[in-house]
Write a structure and sequence with these properties.
There is one protein chain. By secondary structure, this protein is α+β, with helices and mostly antiparallel strands. The strands form four sheets. It has a four-stranded antiparallel beta sheet with strand order 5-6-4-7. A two-stranded antiparallel sheet has the order 1-2. Strands 3-10 form a two-stranded antiparallel ribbon. The protein folds into two domains: 62 residues, no CATH class; 193 residues, Alpha-Beta Plaits (2-Layer Sandwich). 26% of the residues are buried.
Length: 282
């Protein structure tokens, strides 16, 4: 009798619990479009002004777009990755010519060249400890300044037992594992990419599809469009602009069009050009 009474109390307690309301799932793409073209925040002519303001924020790639009276539909965050962002262009970059068997991997460091060279031994030790493979030896092939506070290094790895080089794609994939990201960033690493010439099939696929959501490294002049990097941005380039960039390519045999999105990308390109000009003058 006592157990039945306790059971009734438990059932009654459960029945009195308020049911949690499930919020509707918000499709990000649909919410973005509604914030620009179908605002219903006020229900009057002010919605037109709000739509205009939201569109300006989308063009700038910053701000929040309110579009609904319901709290179930939060404002949209505008970023440079949205298709209406205006500060984007297409430049050109030289394709890598190295083979995969060469094993060359590009690693960008947020450090001046002289500081990186002074820390070369400790960086190699940290990278080898990171991989956890005693038979793998990492070596620096060379370094080059790509700005006042950034340096590009080319590294490769050898198997101590066979004296054969690890392929560039395997080495880059090993370093780009998600669990290594924080440790690489603590070493100043911003980009890891295999220094490999793309195959004709890869190049054809890249040129036929505008880079909408593809992965690119931070420095577009060092882009490797076929590997995943630590620092990435999502892009949205109009197909007509992409096609025109291919037609205007000064040398399609060794250059590819690459997107430039935002002021930072343009600044990086200018810094790189200044470095190359100084190297040519010297």
């Amino acid at each position: 009798m006592k157990s039945n009474f306790i059971s009734l109390i438990a059932i009654g307690f459960n029945l009195q619990q308020p049911q949690q309301q499930l919020l509707p799932l918000v499709d990000e793409s649909q919410a973005f479009q509604q914030s620009l073209f179908h605002c219903h925040k006020f229900g009057d002519e002010r919605d037109n002004a709000l739509s205009t303001l939201n569109f300006l924020q989308a063009c700038w790639g910053i701000g929040k777009g309110h579009y609904s009276q319901s709290q179930a539909f939060p404002p949209v965050n505008y970023t440079p990755q949205n298709p209406f962002y205006r500060f984007k262009a297409v430049g050109y970059a030289f394709m890598y010519t190295d083979s995969n068997e060469d094993g060359h991997v590009v690693v960008n460091f947020k450090k001046p060249q002289d500081k990186l060279q002074a820390e070369e031994t400790s960086i190699i030790t940290n990278l080898q400890n990171l991989l956890g493979r005693p038979n793998i030896i990492i070596r620096f092939s060379g370094t080059k300044a790509i700005g006042d506070s950034s340096t590009m290094a080319v590294i490769y790895a050898e198997d101590r037992n066979t004296l054969r080089r690890v392929t560039a794609t395997d080495m880059a994939a090993a370093l780009c594992q998600p669990q290594f990201k924080e440790r690489l960033e603590s070493l100043g690493v911003t980009v890891v990419t295999a220094k490999v010439k793309p195959s004709p099939e890869q190049l054809k696929q890249y040129l036929e599809n505008p880079p909408d959501g593809k992965i690119f490294c931070k420095y577009s002049n060092l882009v490797d469009i076929f590997t995943t990097n630590l620092r990435t941005i999502l892009l949205g380039i109009d197909s007509r602009v992409w096609q025109q960039a291919q037609e205007d390519n000064p040398d399609p045999s060794c250059m590819i069009p690459t997107p430039l999105v935002g002021v930072e990308a343009l600044r990086s390109r200018l810094d790189w050009q200044e470095v190359m000009c100084r190297a040519l003058e010297g």
